[in-house]
């Protein structure tokens, strides 16, 4: 078991494009569907695996291109330390004073270490200075509890 780290920052409007953050339905629209529905399904099916937007389900990061992996660690504590470093690097931009609280951030890092040690995934999101958003995720790989048959993106 190992862990992959992912980081995304960008405009909140882009983050809100949920159709590109969820995998397409396994079945395409039925024959006779509106052409715009069929076209949208094709767009989402083509774009979801490659778009850099954070997926709605954390484990689906493993489907994304390997170039989006920001780090890989064998130890949960090392992956949690990376989260801590990212939080420290971005804290000055957090929109909420509560989110900048160092005791709270330390608690998040500790919680992440515990969760990752059990094989769970971790995902955090923060509003940055308007209108931006920060998404951090560490996904457990080989296997992942949510998607055990998903191969490692680095293999």
Number of strands: 4
* Low-confidence residue ranges: none
- Classification by helices and strands: alpha+beta
| Sheet of most strands | 4 strands, antiparallel
- Give the overall average pLDDT: 95
| Secondary-structure element order, N to C | EHHEHHHEE
Question: What fraction of the residues are assigned to beta strands by DSSP?
Answer: 15-25%
- Biggest sheet strand order reads 2-1-4-3
Radius of gyration: 17 Å
- Give the overall shape, derived from the CA principal axes: globular
Summarize the structure.
By secondary structure, the chain is α+β, with helices and mostly antiparallel strands. Helices cover 34% and strands 19% of the residues.
List the helices and strands and how they pair.
Blueprint: E1 2-11, H1 12-15, H2 35-47, E2 71-73, H3 76-90, H4 97-100, H5 102-117, E3 122-127, E4 132-141
Helix pairs in contact: 3-5
Describe this entry's structure for a reader.
By secondary structure, this protein is α+β, with helices and mostly antiparallel strands. The protein has five helices and four strands. The chain has helices spanning 12-15, 35-47, 76-90, 97-100, 102-117, and strands at residues 2-11, 71-73, 122-127, 132-141. Strands 2-1-4-3 form a four-stranded antiparallel beta sheet. Strand 3 (122-127) and strand 4 form a beta hairpin. The longest helix has 16 residues, at 102-117. It is globular and about 55 Å long. The two termini are 13 Å apart. The mean pLDDT is 95.
């Amino acid at each position: 078991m190992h862990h992959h780290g992912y980081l995304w920052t960008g405009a909140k409007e882009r983050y809100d494009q949920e159709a590109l953050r969820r995998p397409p339905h396994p079945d395409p629209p039925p024959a006779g569907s509106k052409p715009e529905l069929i076209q949208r399904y094709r767009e989402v099916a083509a774009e979801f695996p490659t778009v850099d937007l954070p997926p709605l389900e954390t484990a689906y990061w493993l489907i994304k291109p390997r170039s989006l992996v920001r780090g890989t660690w064998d130890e949960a504590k090392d992956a949690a330390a990376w989260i801590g470093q990212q939080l420290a690097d971005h804290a000055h931009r957090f929109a909420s004073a509560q989110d900048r609280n160092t005791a709270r951030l330390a608690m998040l890092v500790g919680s992440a270490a515990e969760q990752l040690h059990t094989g769970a995934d971790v995902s955090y999101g923060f509003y940055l200075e308007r209108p931006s958003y920060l998404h951090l995720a560490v996904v457990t790989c080989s296997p992942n509890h949510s998607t055990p048959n998903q191969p490692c993106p680095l293999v």
